[in-house]
User: Which sequence fits this backbone?
């Protein structure tokens, strides 16, 4: 390699570093500006709506897609917002809970699933879905940093914070998916006529037991759960309800028992509704094995109102 | 170590700098490459390094023996040592469980219950690739096409050179050993084409293939609940996923090798722009298809022994080519479909006295390839049959979209990938040489745009599809 080639190589490397850095910042700050205006869509809009309303809302639901599709906020008297998001877990919920206002009376449902707590591979990576707010929301930034949820490249290429979401943001900016002012975060799952036979086939399929010999609580999940407990202790005005919503046919209940025990040990107000509709309802309550249809969500939400004194019908 | 990992991003520049600091001695460079390659491979599982070292020792020694022996029968004996040892290792690690399981199933159908004969064996990454590479070395010496090398470090480097170690291109000794045994130089053209190809490869793998894979995986995991439209979209996506995944891997391999002054063989030449299946196989995984042609098809007699035996040889080559990909009957069927259509094409060409089809050939080729991919992707024969059944019963209701964000991302990136391919094809250049045309500034802009795309759209698939083979 002669000196001319070395010079050329250095030139390409230097140009690439400078141009890619500049381009990255241009795109990142443009996306920041655009995304702040977006109030619809699961990726950014729902989070923006939550952050802008969190100080004035009385009732929240946190959790994954099951939380999102199973609790119909319109059936409750309290003005509520369902912050359940597909693919998220306890880390995501705990980070958002930490952003709630101090000393304000609020009712909070934390939907938990056994999957998070006994999955040895769970690393709290669901928190990364919040990275679009990195360096823009102090609680989220601190949580992402403290839990090492950012790639080392992220401190150089900021646009990684919008990984996977850029097109969705642009789409929702130019054409919002719904009227966010009337949106309470609950997304019902409707089952069309043509989907009924597929749903019935899925539910009828025999399931093999996925029970493990020994359930070991994932340390990360436990850490996030404990951080919610600490937050609840620091904010006695807030009422926390932990629950697991129904699933179609839970073959293994060892994990549920163990989670129940853990919740008891931590002194958390927890109820497990996994088997609420086991073998006692028709398929109309279900979209698939783990998600209830709009009809199922309605029945379950009414069941919650009847079960807890904290809730009332409108 | 994966090409699309932070580790490789650190590993490559370190080895690159050390390598060119040793430019005064290509032998020292080879020692560095050998150590680096073993680190690269050992990152995955250091225990399997012993297999590569064993295979390298064996073929180094056998090569010397074949070369120095004058007697034909002795040469043949030494070649058999290489063939049996290499294929034996491959057989144990890759095919033992498959044949044990198939044997047990066959016995049970005739009423003979056999105890479970399968073993808990881990398939070493890249074994199919480096086994074929070392085999071709011994066969080439046996055929008198090359001389055995006496440079042990050089030969070991040839077997394990990290850019091509785990998933090819399957390099021939006649191409690579002379490069290893001579001084390498790095010029501006190699830098430009190398960097361009590495980043195009990353774009193909990390942005396109991995995003397509999200939809494909979700549909194929529950194929029984999806209708024909969904399965068709997923299969078309898979056709592009596997192309961009594997060609992306080859691009990073070829591009990385260029930075060390090596020219690897081309492995892909826009295969979906083929009017016949014969042409497809001259453009798809070229290093494997040419290997199968030279060492299997021709060894079986090729087209020299009459029309019937030509078809038999073609079919047998493709069936074994299918089996090379994995120990499952689905891969054999995949190879069989290709073998059957290649034979039919050969017959049609001989009857109609033509060499290729008209523009409709593009559609015909893509459809055959698509059907065959179903067997490649489906977990078992029953699932593949069910998918084909739904497609041909024209059960085309509304398609399942799943995560709309992921679906739209996949469509946008796929369109971008196809446009890039069209641009290069229409320039009458190859991807391998395309980077020459750019000034340093333009190349930096292109690389920067690719980096931005990767930041915005990277997906987190852990492996390259071909690693499992």
Assistant:
């Amino acid at each position: 390699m002669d000196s001319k080639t070395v010079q050329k190589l250095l030139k390409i490397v230097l140009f690439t570093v400078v141009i890619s850095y500049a381009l990255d910042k241009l795109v990142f700050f443009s996306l920041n500006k655009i995304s702040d205006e977006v109030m619809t869509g699961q990726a950014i809009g729902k989070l923006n709506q939550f952050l802008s309303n969190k100080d004035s809302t009385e009732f929240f639901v946190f959790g994954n897609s099951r939380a999102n599709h199973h609790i119909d906020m319109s059936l409750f008297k309290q003005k509520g917002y369902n912050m359940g998001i597909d693919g998220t877990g306890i880390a995501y919920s705990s980070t958002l809970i930490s952003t709630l206002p101090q000393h304000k009376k609020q009712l909070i449902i934390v939907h938990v699933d056994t999957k998070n707590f006994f999955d040895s591979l769970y690393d709290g990576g669901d928190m990364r879905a919040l990275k679009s707010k990195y360096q823009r929301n102090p609680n989220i930034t601190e949580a992402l940093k403290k839990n090492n949820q950012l790639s080392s490249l992220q401190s150089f290429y900021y646009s990684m914070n919008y990984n996977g979401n850029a097109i969705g943001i642009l789409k929702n900016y130019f054409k919002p998916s719904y009227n966010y002012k009337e949106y309470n975060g609950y997304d019902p799952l409707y089952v069309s006529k043509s989907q009924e036979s597929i749903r019935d086939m899925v539910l009828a399929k025999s399931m093999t037991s996925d029970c493990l010999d020994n359930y070991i609580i994932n340390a990360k999940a436990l850490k996030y759960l404990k951080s919610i407990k600490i937050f609840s202790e620091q904010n006695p005005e807030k009422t926390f309800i932990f629950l697991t919503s129904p699933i179609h046919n839970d073959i293994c209940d060892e994990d549920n028992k163990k989670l129940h025990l853990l919740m008891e040990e931590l002194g958390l107000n927890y109820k497990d509704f996994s088997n609420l509709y086991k073998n006692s309802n028709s398929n109309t309550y279900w979209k698939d094995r783990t998600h209830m249809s709009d009809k199922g969500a309605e029945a379950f939400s009414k069941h919650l109102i009847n079960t807890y004194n904290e809730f009332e019908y409108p | 170590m994966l090409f699309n990992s932070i580790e490789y991003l650190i590993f490559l520049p370190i080895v690159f700098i050390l390598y060119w600091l040793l430019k005064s001695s290509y032998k020292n460079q080879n020692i560095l490459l050998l150590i680096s390659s073993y680190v690269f491979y050992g990152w995955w599982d250091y225990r399997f390094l012993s297999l590569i070292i064993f295979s390298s020792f064996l073929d180094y020694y056998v090569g010397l023996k074949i070369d120095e022996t004058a007697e034909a029968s002795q040469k043949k004996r030494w070649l058999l040592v290489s063939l049996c040892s290499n294929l034996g290792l491959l057989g144990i690690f890759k095919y033992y469980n498959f044949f044990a399981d198939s044997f047990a199933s066959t016995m049970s159908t005739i009423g003979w219950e056999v105890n479970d004969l399968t073993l808990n064996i881990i398939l070493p990454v890249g074994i199919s690739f480096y086994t074929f590479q070392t085999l071709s070395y011994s066969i080439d010496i046996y055929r008198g096409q090359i001389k055995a090398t006496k440079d042990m470090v050089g030969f070991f480097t040839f077997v394990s050179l990290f850019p091509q170690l785990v998933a090819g291109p399957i390099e021939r000794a006649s191409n690579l050993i002379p490069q290893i045994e001579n001084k390498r130089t790095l010029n501006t053209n190699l830098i430009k084409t190398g960097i361009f190809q590495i980043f195009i490869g990353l774009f193909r793998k990390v942005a396109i293939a991995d995003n397509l894979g999200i939809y494909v995986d979700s549909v194929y995991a529950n194929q029984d609940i999806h209708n024909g439209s969904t399965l068709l979209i997923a299969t078309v996506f898979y056709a592009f996923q596997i192309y961009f995944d594997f060609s992306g891997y080859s691009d990073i391999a070829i591009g990385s090798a260029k930075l060390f002054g090596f020219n690897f063989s081309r492995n892909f030449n826009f295969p979906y722009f083929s009017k016949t299946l014969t042409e497809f196989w001259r453009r798809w995984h070229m290093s494997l298809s040419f290997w199968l042609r030279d060492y299997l098809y021709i060894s079986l007699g090729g087209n020299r022994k009459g029309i019937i035996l030509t078809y038999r040889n073609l079919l047998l080559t493709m069936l074994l080519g299918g089996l090379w990909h994995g120990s499952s009957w689905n891969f054999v069927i995949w190879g069989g479909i290709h073998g059957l259509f290649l034979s039919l094409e050969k017959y049609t060409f001989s009857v109609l006295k033509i060499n290729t089809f008209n523009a409709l050939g593009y559609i015909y080729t893509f459809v055959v390839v698509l059907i065959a991919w179903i067997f490649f992707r489906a977990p078992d024969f029953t699932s593949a049959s069910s998918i084909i059944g739904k497609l041909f019963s024209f059960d085309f209701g509304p398609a399942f979209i799943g995560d709309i964000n992921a679906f739209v991302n996949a469509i946008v990136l796929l369109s971008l990938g196809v446009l890039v391919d069209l641009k290069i094809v229409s320039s009458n250049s190859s991807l391998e040489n395309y980077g020459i045309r750019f000034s340093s500034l333009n190349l930096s802009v292109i690389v920067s745009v690719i980096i931005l795309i990767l930041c915005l759209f990277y997906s987190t698939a852990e492996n390259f599809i071909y690693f499992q083979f």
About this structure: The beta strands of chain A are 59-63, 80-84, 107-111, 239-244, 270-272. The first helix of chain A runs from residue 3 to 37.
